[in-house]
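Milestone M4 deliverable, item 7.
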Amino acid sequence: MTKKTVLRLPLLLGLLALACNKPQPERVAAPPERSEANAAPAEKPVDKQPLAPAPTESKALASLPSFAPLVEAVKAAVINVEVRAVASEPRRVSAPRSPFDFFDRFFGQQGRNRAPPRDQIRAGLGSGFIIDASGIALTNNHVVQDAISIRVRLNDGRSFDAEVLGRDPPTDVAVIKFKGEPKDLPLVRLGDSDALHVGDWVVAIGNPFGLASSVSAGIISAKDRVIGAGPYDDFLQTDAAINPGNSGGPLFNIRGEVIGINTAIVASGSGIGFAVPANMAKALLPQLKKDGHVVRGWLGVGAQTLTPELAKALGVPVHDGAVVTEVAEGGPAQKAGLKPDDVIGAVDGQPAVSASALTRSVAFKPPGTTVTLTIDRGGKKEEIKVVLGTRPDFEGLSGVGGSNGSGSDEKRQEMIGLQVQDVDPSFAQSRNAPTQGALIVDVAPGSLADEAGLAPGMAIIEAGGRPIKSAADLKRAIRDAKPGSVLLLRIYFQGSKVLQALTIPK
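Output delivered:
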């Protein structure tokens, strides 16, 4: 073949393609190199045909997923949750406002400081998903809290009354169960949220603004988010559109597994939502189904996250972990020999990269569990075995009206709204307070305890003329009090003893 023939070959191929109305994709993606010596004369286009997409562009478009098969397979198990509940009053003293809002802000209320009167009934809409053929579903605690009636609606048009099987306010997880004997219920499976990577595709399905079975898609934007919602923050962040009414709804991976429960949004943001990881819900599920509440393991230490400056000052070679700042007297950690300034780097071989990670690792193990702590003490690595106790600040006043866990007792407990723990000796010593009593750790806004002027940090040392030496003593005193009566409490607070009157609900 002559040189002249070679030079004209691209031109002949181009003319042939135009004659067949088949533009050459190679000419669009990578035109041949030309120099002054071999350049062919420029040609005017014969016809303005639309250019075919480049091969790389076509492959990219073809690789984008369609979520239609996934949605079709799982949407039947997503439920609308209609709730009628007693409205709660707000705190009389406003707390600093967080940029993160849980969906209960939109759940029949007008903001956290403008709630309707206590005896007003609010109606709200949320979401959930069925995980068991007997009619067990997961949703958010804030969706069903204070509920006096729950009605769930399925995608196929069926509806059922439901009841709360268990709730865990610190993680905002709740389990509900359909009443009656439902049959042929569609189910979804909880996946492994730890296996997610930032950038993975996710799909949210729920009931935003009452628009049933709404679907949105996005990616995992971040993991392990701490947003100040509670002591066990470990949220998945997503840009999949979630709105009021998506509360309690599922966040799916591309295999159709639930890897999160949609829970919160940034109030002033867009495309920033948060979900409770599925693995957290799986850890809570057995206790919530069996006992209705969660009892957590307790190490008995105060801790803070290790920083480079602290690591240098302590002379430890590690960069991540939780520094022990105090050890509760008589607690599990003290019995095991843990000391202040120890750096805990792992629990049962799993990294504890921060104080909050340590708290979560311990709290999701049942009391009585023996765990192995990997610590660094003065630059020397050691392993210490600890038998976990029961976390006292979440024993609270469960079953305050009695021990049978009935609905009326639970309602009585919620109306009082008081959560206490035994006075910790180290707490008492640091504040020159009584070494025995019931220390208030939380007061529900608008509750009877709130109305009585009770607040976290107060230590109840007497109730109804009876000495209170523990949280259990206070529980008995409240349980034995006559409904509608007023229980006189003697309280130690900020160096003084004061009296407060707590009304016992009828």
